[in-house]
Design goal:
By secondary structure, this protein is an alpha+beta fold. The protein is built from 1 helix and 3 strands, in the order ββαβ. Strand 1 and strand 2 form a beta hairpin.
């Protein structure tokens, strides 16, 4: 399963950036993940104190899961 991984920075301190897996963004393959990635990253970002500066799709990533909406 491919997962959406976003590179995000805190709005309050934009120099602090980290990668996270977006919860519920799993797709059967990387191509499907890529097709859906922009909308899912945007949807996740709208409810958080982070700004997405990039994203990628990967399988079996060791990246931590993104914090829930706050």
């Amino acid at each position: 399963m491919a997962e959406l991984i976003v590179m995000v920075c805190l709005l309050a301190t934009p120099e602090k950036c980290q990668e996270y897996k977006v919860p519920g963004s799993g797709a059967g393959d990387v191509v499907t993940c890529i097709r859906e990635a922009a909308a899912k990253a945007d949807e996740w970002q709208n409810n958080n104190k982070y700004i997405v500066i990039g994203w990628r799709c990967a399988k079996d990533s060791k990246v931590p899961e993104a914090p829930s909406a706050q």
